[in-house]
Design brief:
The protein is α/β, with parallel strands linked by helices and 306 residues long. The chain has one domain: Alpha/Beta hydrolase fold, catalytic domain (Rossmann fold, 3-Layer(aba) Sandwich). It has ten helices and eight strands. A hairpin with a 7-residue loop joins strand 1 and strand 2. It is globular.
């Protein structure tokens, strides 16, 4: 029999041992490495699976996000700062504001980022003069946004749906990005209406190129966005789009373009608040820390009803 003295000694000894708390489940990353494609150069893809994924049988909605280098790990970021997309997702899930979901981060290709994220159809809606000026601002190579979206829709998404427990339908498939990434997200929900139900267009670079346009050039771009809304986006048909912008640095140029696009959407039957959101974050610049600070708002609106 163990005496009281020995019990007290054992209790004291246990008190001196390191306290081991149950580790918090913060989800899990899966690095697919560079995914080969028939349409674009091999592209690195990193997936975040939500807490509880490995011990559950349920299926999950998926958010595809651009500029994957800047989503999760500051060491991989172009600017040593990130959206912290997984942290935002965990906060919302823990608070019961959204159902658990999967994030698929797709790296951008460096110097080819602009031509990969530029909506191809917009080039056809611009005047030749503005189109030529945009070409001179770039590297002169062909626009490959259609090829990039084909990679996502016909190669990457089918692989994700096979390998992971996803809800593969349109309602539970979203796509999001910032700046030029906002443009390609808008283009995705335009081109693939049967695949993407929701787009997140954060600090969308609606001026398309160098924002220091002349008044006539700016009017030409306004007209192109009106035509885009009428001819390409058309009626909402169950789709939803989040738009936002700040008011500092590059975002300071965006308000008039966003107002034109908002009005064009409303003229075409889109209802603000229901079909699209258009938020202004005063005092915020065009950079990852600002986007991280409002990502709870973005995800919360985009994933409502999932």
């Amino acid at each position: 029999m163990i005496g009281r003295r020995h019990l007290l000694g054992a209790t004291a000894l246990l008190a001196l041992l390191p306290h081991t708390a149950k580790a918090k489940d913060s989800g899990r990353f899966v690095d697919l490495g560079k995914v080969r494609s028939n349409y674009i150069a091999p592209t690195k893809v990193v997936i975040w699976l939500p807490p509880g994924y490995d011990n559950a049988r349920q299926r999950y909605g998926v958010v595809y996000m651009h500029d994957g280098q800047n989503l999760f790990d500051p060491k991989r970021s172009n600017f040593n700062k990130v959206w912290a997309a997984d942290q935002s997702a965990m906060r919302l899930i823990a608070a019961g504001k959204v159902k658990p979901f999967i994030i698929v981060g797709i790296d951008q290709p460096g110097e080819d980022r602009g031509r990969q994220y530029f909506p191809r159809v917009m080039a056809d809606l611009l005047s030749p003069a503005v189109r030529d000026k945009l070409t001179s601002q770039g590297n002169g190579k062909p626009i490959i946004s259609d090829e990039y979206l084909k990679f996502i829709v016909s190669e990457l998404k089918p692989h994700i749906d096979r390998k992971f427990r996803t809800k593969a339908d349109r309602k539970h498939t979203a796509i999001a990005g910032s700046s030029m990434g906002g443009l390609i997200s808008l283009y995705a929900v335009t081109r693939y209406t049967d695949i993407f139900g929701t787009a997140g267009a954060v600090s969308t670079h609606l001026p398309l190129g160098d924002p220091n346009w002349t008044a006539s050039e700016r009017e030409d771009i306004f007209a192109a966005w009106r035509a885009y809304a009428a001819k390409e986006l058309r009626k909402p048909a169950g789709r939803r789009i989040w738009f936002d912008h700040g008011t500092e640095t590059l975002d300071a140029f965006y308000e008039p373009y966003q107002q034109v696009l908002d009005a064009a959407l409303e003229a075409n039957g889109w209802v603000k608040g229901r079909d699209f959101s258009s938020r202004v974050y005063k005092g915020t610049p065009h950079e990852e820390n600002a986007w991280a600070a409002r990502l709870d708002d973005v995800f919360g609106w985009m994933l409502k009803g999932w």
